[in-house]
Design goal:
The chain is 47% helix and 10% strand. It is built from 22 helices and twelve strands. The protein has helices at residues 2-11, 23-26, 35-46, 56-62, 78-84, 161-166, 190-196, 205-211, 214-226, 232-235, 238-241, 250-261, 266-275, 286-290, 293-311, 318-339, 344-359, 367-382, 390-395, 400-412, 418-429, 432-438; strands at residues 19-21, 51-54, 71-74, 88-91, 97-102, 105-111, 145-146, 152-154, 175-178, 183-186, 198-199, 229-230. It has an eight-stranded mixed sheet with strand order 1-10-9-2-3-6-5-4. By secondary structure, it is an alpha+beta fold.
């Protein structure tokens, strides 16, 4: 009876009252928001709905960073949002969202959701039709369902503003900004945790990780990105529950790992994954790679350079990053295949396929990236060939620059001589006549390709020569 009463109270919107923080305290004016998010909230307010900029955008603004995107949460149903905005479309299966377009900006507008087992939105939801914070009856949505390990498979339940805040993962992501009066609504002491530089889970961490194991990766990403610590209670179950990542679809794992690598704090993120024991679920070969002195130096240099490129606003290729992370495992498999009797190029192909087969069981690396990774790897033995037409042909390859950058990384880590990388640096920028002078003659006794004999023309009236074998 008590549970039933509490659920009804939460559905009517009388849940946890937020701390309301005024502009003079938090310092974020509405002008800091994007045009699209301001306009979306204004239109929803005028139509009589609640609307807030939520989540990571508010967190980043309070930390002095420019958010990549601005999301809006509202008590309007997706169909209501779609009717209000001419340039909008509804997306999503697990939970319906509205994407509203404002020029080149797309604002994601979501309806307040109920969700976790602590806020009354779990599997034991009451049979009555749910009501929203305005007391309106809502159409029945499919019930929330989980798998045998507790991972949420379907979460299609609308709720109140309070329930929406409770179902968010970390306190620093449960901040709601109201552009109409420039206040921040803090439901779970997120502002306090921002000041403490702490990543803290809302609710019971063990339950929340079981609902969505990716939250463990997100905890690591936020800690690495902002230089925060993970709250002791939030961190405690991570190592034990790390095997739950095996149950997450590989495509989703790839998305989350890409966010860690592209955050500008990839070095801290990857090493934090290893500290927390989470790398087995995303990069199972990381231990082997980092236990090799050359492998550790190579990976660290690759991640450092990636972070430098992100911080300076330069583009970063996920293919180059994953090629770097997996290279020393490919190298070990390549050497083994050659030792078993395969020639270098077939051995490299076998090694690449073997490593990618193992890795893609954990991360569904898209084919466009694996194809680029293979081109980078296949270019490496070709850099050793500096005679004849081969250097000129390599220069014309589409992925030459990526392959060369990879070679420079190998030289910096001590894997290949600096002289090799220096030669290719000069060769690619030299004039045509200078390039010819730079070519290195093959060593005496080296393997030479047999010259093809030219067929002689038959003498007039004489017998035709025998056909050459095909």
């Amino acid at each position: 009876m008590i549970k039933k009463f509490l659920r009804r109270v939460l559905r009517l919107g009388f849940g946890t009252e937020p701390e309301i923080v005024a502009l003079k305290e938090h310092g974020i004016g509405r002008d800091a928001l994007s045009y699209g998010s301001r306009k979306a909230c204004e239109t929803l307010h005028q139509a009589g709905y609640q609307a807030y900029v939520v989540g990571g955008a508010v967190r980043d603004l309070l930390l002095g960073a420019r958010p990549k995107d601005f999301d809006v949460a509202t008590d309007a149903l997706p169909e209501d949002v779609h009717r209000l905005f001419r340039r909008s479309r509804l997306i999503g299966r697990r939970f319906r969202l509205a994407h509203v377009m404002f020029g080149g900006e797309t604002v994601e507008v979501s309806t307040f959701r109920a969700g976790n087992s602590e806020d009354g939105g779990g599997d034991e939801a009451e049979p009555e039709a749910p009501v929203d914070a305005r007391g309106r009856a809502r159409a029945r949505e499919p019930a929330r369902s989980t798998d045998q390990l507790g991972r949420v498979l379907r979460d299609n339940v609308y709720g109140t503003r309070e329930q929406d805040a409770a179902r968010r993962d970390f306190t620093i992501n449960a901040l709601y900004y109201d552009p109409s009066d420039e206040t921040v609504l803090d439901f779970h002491h997120g502002l306090r945790d921002l000041k403490k530089k702490s990543v803290r889970m809302i609710g019971d961490p063990r339950t929340r990780y079981r609902e969505d194991p990716v939250r463990m990766l997100r905890a690591v990403r936020f800690a690495a990105k902002f230089g925060f610590t993970i709250d002791a209670r939030t961190r405690a179950p991570i190592r034990e529950l790390a095997p739950l990542l095996e149950n997450v679809p590989p495509a989703r794992m790839f998305d989350e790992m890409s966010k860690i690598l592209m955050s500008g704090h990839a070095l801290a993120g990857v090493h934090r994954l290893r500290i927390e024991g989470l790398h087995h679920g995303v990069l199972p070969m990381l231990d082997v790679i980092l236990e090799q002195p050359l492998g550790e130096r190579f990976v660290n240099l690759a991640l450092e350079q990636t972070d430098e490129r992100v911080s300076s606003g330069k583009p970063v290729s996920p293919a180059f990053l994953f090629a770097s992370l997996l290279w020393h495992e490919v190298l070990a498999a390549w050497k083994k295949a050659q030792k078993d009797g395969l020639r270098p190029v077939p051995a490299l192909h076998q090694a690449m396929d073997k490593v990618l087969d193992i890795q893609t069981e954990k991360l569904a690396i898209p084919r466009r990236f694996t194809a680029a990774m293979k081109e980078i790897w296949l270019a490496q033995p070709r850099f050793e060939q500096r005679s004849g037409r081969r250097p000129f042909a390599l220069l014309e390859q589409e992925k030459f620059r990526a392959g060369f950058d990879f070679l420079v990384l190998r030289a910096a880590s001590g894997e290949v001589p600096q002289e090799l990388a220096g030669w290719w640096e000069r060769f690619q920028h030299a004039k045509p006549e200078e390039r010819a002078a730079m070519l290195i003659e093959p060593q005496p006794g080296g393997e030479r390709k047999p010259r093809r004999r030219r067929r002689r023309k038959p003498a007039s009236g004489g017998p035709a020569p025998e056909s050459a074998p095909r």
